[in-house]
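== Fold encoding ==
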Amino acid sequence: MYQVFIRRYRLADVPHGKPYYVYCIEVLESERGTRYFIEKRYSEFSALHRTLKKENADTAPFPPKRVRNSQPKVLEQRRAALELYVQKMLRLSTTKQQVLNFLGIEGRAAVESYKSTYKNTEDTQYVHPSALNHHPVLTFHRDPYVLSNATPSLPDIVINGVLLGMYS
């Protein structure tokens, strides 16, 4: 069984052309206890979606592209939506193999996957996958910073106090 998390995004500087954002994907394979680290652009996710949609009728909704919007809030929403999309497509038996091929983890060793992903990146140093221990301490069922149409069950002062206490 595979678990997929898109932990963050970063601006990739390229010597030629414009810089672009890449999404840092972590895949956990529970059967062997290995981790894979991959970076993909939004355009690569979009190409995967087009391929999956062409070959399979049942695909999850894909986050739309906004015109050159690089605000942190938009990028964070897209990161969360892409993570949910990949998780859903990995659960479907008709698309699982294509998603694994897209991530490039079938038949690759975890450490080699990590090294090949970061070998051309000057600002990232190699860290052995066993040294990375990302364990969620607190999770939200929805983004606490995005306003919803529903009225909250708690007064805003309680939510603001908790968020300020945790992230101040």
Summary: The first strand starts at residue 2 and ends at 12. Residues 72-91 form the longest helix (20 residues). The chain has a mean pLDDT of 76.
